[in-house]
TrEMBL record:
Belongs to the GTP cyclohydrolase II family. Residues 345-479 form the GTP cyclohydrolase II domain. This is Uracil-regulated protein 1. It comes from the Eukaryota. It comes from Lunasporangiospora selenospora. The gene is URG1. GO terms for biological process: riboflavin biosynthetic process.
Length: 526
């Protein structure tokens, strides 16, 4: 880092210290006024004892204890100069506003909300994290809990459960869930074993999930049960039966057969193993995979999440991030132990979520038809002695989100829906054609030990290229049959083929795209 950049950072920190001192003076003034008649207000301004800059420059301590409601009330009655630390001298300092409710429930948390932490703070000793180590004890657990007994030893930014951590917050705030609830992992172990693969110990192969995430309660039992550390699985594996209407019809008309192992009954019950995977990002590896600098990645994540995770900036020593996004689900048909066997045939469908089509049958795209087709071929592969694999990612609307997707739909239908303008309509609203960025997608294949795919049920050039660039061979690419393409989705299909999607047919010319049009608004009037 250049001297000019360092000087600029130092100047910014000095300005921040000045601004925060001014804020502290205002808060102290407010506190003195409120203390006279604090029964009149439900909120009290807490003292802003120090600024983060003071912590950085003076190596101030950080709290590692929680207080009970009684202890908090006693501290609030104590003279201000005695509020700077707890009995052991390890106190977090941060501006906050407290209420009577939060005071009563302060036990599991630190005395004051911790806005951020710094590597040089006293008491900050993160659990070891040697990403890519083959031994899970050497690698270390992913510790993301923000509770008082974990905040000093966390080695990950973010929260367990991804986007669902918000619902957990609501449950705690409403009193339905104790803030310090620890899961009971009895009987939750996987019903099948996903064998450790060489790829698990290659830090360049797996950067977006924890390969040991399904074995947390096994490998870190002592830390969880004896030390009381809140460490949670980020992968769960189970087994189930599925019923899919389209495939039930295929069984009835004889297109698919009941074999008793994969399709287990005449009603169409399908035997499947499933794995749910929450994202766990190793930031240096993610940055390398995306071909960006880690510092730039951290800054972009910080800014574009509304500053939700300041430790992306203040804690460069924390290399693991649990992003607040959806994960993925793996569906395995056949013998899961053969996934890593290059001599066993494997059929794969990589599918990105489309709620409108996948669940509700919208005909503006080919998502559900292609998903069902991939499922059908995967099941047939398993019945013939191979393995079938569906990987379902939560990337709604090309990771642009369903609101953006529907805005694009409106623009397409109002302005004339043609293949020639298909991507332009998306760019007008979102600024980009696609934000799925398939570079991280191959990680789940490395976790399963896959090195070769015999039949790839996808036309996406981005998915194909990402897998191949990560060392996974693809022997055959299988487009969706024409008869499965809904009429109103031909706009999407033609536009994608012209943009580089795989096809065994002809590639439309630019002038041809203007003639491929979709249903207009007037056809919706019934």
């Amino acid at each position: 880092m250049s001297e000019a950049v360092l000087s600029q950072i130092l100047a910014t920190l000095v300005d921040l210290k000045t601004n925060q001192q001014q804020l502290a003076d205002k808060v102290d003034k407010l506190q003195s006024e409120v203390d006279k008649d604090d029964h009149l207000l439900p909120h009290k301004a807490a003292r802003y004892h120090n600024s983060p800059v003071d912590i950085i420059l003076a190596d101030q301590p950080i709290l590692n204890l929680a207080l009970t409601g009684k202890e908090v009330r006693e501290k609030e009655r104590a003279p201000a100069q005695k509020r700077h630390s707890d009995s052991d001298g390890d106190t977090i300092v941060s501006p906050t506003f407290t209420t009577n409710r939060s005071t009563e429930q302060a036990g599991p948390y630190t005395d004051k909300p911790v806005l951020t932490t710094y590597p040089s703070q006293k008491g900050v000793k993160p659990f070891k994290m040697d990403w890519g180590a083959a031994d899970p004890q050497v690698r270390g657990p992913v510790v993301a809990s923000h509770l008082a007994n974990s905040i000093n030893i966390r080695n990950a930014i973010g929260a367990y459960g991804g986007s669902y951590s918000i619902y957990r917050s609501l449950a705690v705030a409403m009193g339905d869930l104790p803030a310090d609830h620890k899961p009971n992992f009895d009987y939750t172990q996987p019903p099948v074993k996903i064998a450790q693969q060489p790829q698990w110990s290659d830090p360049t192969k797996i950067v977006s999930l924890d390969p040991f995430g399904h074995l947390t309660s096994q490998y870190f039992k002592s830390e969880i049960e004896e030390q009381g550390i809140d460490i949670r699985p980020t992968i769960a594996i189970t087994r189930a039966h599925m019923l899919v209407p389209e495939l039930q019809n295929e069984i009835k008309d004889g297109s698919m057969r009941v074999d008793g192992k994969v399709i287990v009954s005449e009603t169409g019950e399908i035997n499947v193993h499933k794995a749910a995977v929450d994202p766990v990002w190793f930031l240096p590896g993610v940055a390398a995979r995306l071909n960006v600098e880690e510092e730039l990645l951290r800054r972009s994540l910080y800014e574009n999440t509304g500053g939700m995770y300041p430790e992306l900036i203040s804690r460069p020593d924390l290399k693991v991030f649990l992003p607040p996004i959806g994960g993925l689900t793996v569906y395995i048909f056949g013998n899961h132990e053969l996934l890593s066997d290059p001599n066993t045939r494997l059929t794969v469908r990589v599918h990105d979520e489309c709620n409108g089509s996948d669940v509700f049958g919208s005909d503006i795209c080919t998502c559900r038809p292609y998903l069902i087709y991939g499922m059908k071929e995967s099941i047939k592969e398993a019945q013939d002695g191979g393995v079938g694999l569906i990987v379902y990612f939560r990337k709604e609307g090309r990771a642009l989100g369903e609101v953006t997707k529907y805005l694009v739909y409106n623009a397409r239908k109002r302005a004339g829906d043609s293949a020639a303008k298909y991507f332009q309509r998306t760019e007008n609203v979102a600024g980009v054609k696609d934000m799925r960025f398939q570079a991280l997608m191959p990680d789940v294949f490395h976790w399963l030990g896959v090195t070769k795919i015999d039949r790839f049920m996808s036309m996406s050039n981005m998915k194909h290229d990402a897998l191949v660039e990560n060392g996974i061979k693809i022997l055959e690419r299988c487009p969706i049959p024409d008869e499965l393409v809904p009429p109103d989705s031909k706009v999407e299909m033609e536009a994608k083929i012209a943009a580089g999607y795989f096809t065994t047919g002809s590639i439309p010319r630019e002038e041809d795209l203007t003639h491929t049009v979709g249903r207009g608004w007037e056809e919706f009037q019934h």
